[in-house]
Design goal:
Layout (H helix, E strand, L loop, with lengths): L4 H30 L15 E6 L2 E6 L7 E2 L2 E2 L2 E7 L14 H5 L3 E5 L13 H16 L4 E9 L1 H12 L4 E5 L5 H7 L13 H7 L4 E6 L7 H10 L3 E6 L10 H11 L10 E3 L1
Parallel strand pairs: 5-6, 5-7, 7-8, 8-9, 9-10, 10-11
Antiparallel strand pairs: 1-2, 2-6, 3-4
Helix pairs in contact: 3-4, 4-6
């Protein structure tokens, strides 16, 4: 090698080594970035009508309906349940007040808490989050008073909700401010998507199911653009889309629309035919 080439060769070697170190570093820390595992514990005393629900080694929260529809052993005689999966930088407890209107309509709400969050053991990953969600679904499905179970996911929780729906029968899927796939979102952000260990391919899942899917998304969402919501609704065999003038973290739950959407099916799976409703 000529003398003049040696410094250039050394520079390329240094750049290659640095790139490898960056790739290894990103691969190693990605889960701590995607799943920051907020540690805030539950309050020492929970309000009336809110109960801690322990399933295996994980806890969740059960929010009772706030209207009386009859009871058996202290629980409603017949009840539909919404199983909710929150965003990646939240804990379940923060979502309690958001479900007041659905509870007042007679729905039971179960707020899933992820592994590693809120004091739960086990490190969070797509595998552990979905596995915990399936165990929670199985627990709720075993309650004799439960008629229908809907899964509801916000942001990262949309990936968990659709993954649970791929493994268990649900009466409907509600997706709020979520992505078509985490891989696609990361790619759009000019980040090394090929390194992702957790993909959450929600669009492929909803396209493979006959389950009704209600998507709502904000026009001002800068984190997960509205096009993701539109494509999720379009991919579903029975997709509905609600668009609101809000961003990623300030879209209120459209309770009245959710209740109306559920009533279209009387909580019993999908109708024949493929539909896309835009409101």
């Amino acid at each position: 090698m000529r003398a003049g080439m040696r410094p250039m060769f050394k520079a390329f070697v240094v750049m290659d080594v640095a790139l490898v170190l960056i790739v290894v570093g990103v691969f190693a820390v990605q889960r701590s970035l995607l799943f920051p595992a907020v540690k805030e514990p539950l309050p020492a005393s929970l309000p009336r009508g809110i109960m801690r629900l322990d399933v295996d080694d994980q806890f969740a929260l059960y929010l009772e309906p706030t209207v009386s529809i009859g009871s058996v052993d202290g629980r409603p005689a017949a009840m539909d349940v919404v199983l909710f999966f929150h965003g990646n930088a939240e804990v379940a407890w923060w979502s309690v007040a958001s479900f007041d209107e659905l509870r007042a309509a007679g729905l039971g709400i179960v707020l899933a808490e992820y592994p590693g969050y809120g004091g739960n053991p086990v490190k969070p990953s797509a595998e552990t989050m979905v596995g915990s969600g399936i165990s929670l679904y199985d627990e709720v499905a075993s309650w004799p008073e439960v008629r229908h179970i809907y899964v509801f996911g916000r942001s990262m929780g949309g990936g968990v909700a659709t993954s649970v729906a791929a493994e268990r029968e649900v009466s409907g899927i509600i997706l709020a401010s979520t992505f078509t796939s985490l891989h696609r979102l990361v790619y759009q952000k000019w980040l090394p998507a090929f390194l992702l260990r957790d993909r959450f391919d929600s669009e492929d899942i909803v396209a493979s199911l006959d389950t009704p899917v209600l998507v709502y998304h904000g026009t001002q969402d800068r984190l997960i653009p509205l096009e993701h919501g539109r494509q999720l609704a379009a991919a579903a065999n029975d997709g509905w889309l609600l668009v609101n003038q809000c961003g990623h973290n300030n879209c209120p739950i459209p309770s009245a629309e959710i209740i109306s959407w559920m009533a279209q099916y009387h909580g019993r799976g999908s109708r024949s035919g493929s539909q896309l409703k835009t409101h």
